[in-house]
Design goal:
Distance between the termini: 27 Å
Strand content: under 5%
Number of helices: 8
Structural class: mainly alpha
Number of strands: 3
């Protein structure tokens, strides 16, 4: 079970936490909430950030859904919102944010606009030492020996983060 606010408090993004859990075969449910990035404690606010819900749903859809768990609103209304109707608005807003994030993520996946960029970014893991790293067949000592024999590292290539952010923004 991954919680947005806990990821934030750990210094990670929710997308990072979800993707790592997915890769490890351990993504079964999420606590769909958010927090105040400046406070430093677990505020369990209802999710309203479409960018965040889109990122969450990109990972969940990539996995084919959540099972046996699901999306749980581990959230509460703010202190200023104390009437019963506020809880209604909070749930509707959270559900709408995830519904919209799902539609946007589905469109991004359907159009495959991120696939080539990600594939190129991680191409060095398709063979050679990269593949051995992914397969868990090398130690730090092996990597040290590899780099000492190889000499200079390969030139870096741009991750094109701004391009990727702009592509996602086009869908929002």
């Amino acid at each position: 079970n991954i919680e947005t606010n806990h990821a934030t408090l750990a210094g990670h993004t929710m997308m990072h936490e979800l993707e790592y859990a997915r890769i490890q075969g351990a993504l079964g449910s999420i606590d769909a909430n958010t927090g105040d990035l400046l406070l430093g404690w677990d505020t369990d606010q209802f999710p309203t950030d479409i960018y965040l819900t889109t990122q969450c749903m990109l990972v969940i859809l990539k996995q084919g859904g959540l099972a046996p768990g699901g999306v749980n609103f581990d959230a509460k209304v703010r202190r200023e919102s104390f009437e019963p109707v506020d809880l209604f608005y909070a749930h509707i807003g959270g559900m709408d944010a995830f519904a919209r994030g799902t539609k946007i993520a589905a469109a991004i996946r359907k159009d495959k606009v991120l696939d080539d960029v990600v594939k190129k970014r991680y191409a060095s893991f398709d063979d050679g030492i990269g593949r051995k790293i992914e397969e868990g067949k090398v130690t730090f000592a092996d990597l040290e020996k590899y780099m000492l024999e190889k000499g200079n590292p390969a030139a870096n290539t741009s991750g094109r983060q701004e391009l990727l952010e702009n592509i996602v923004n086009d869908y929002l």
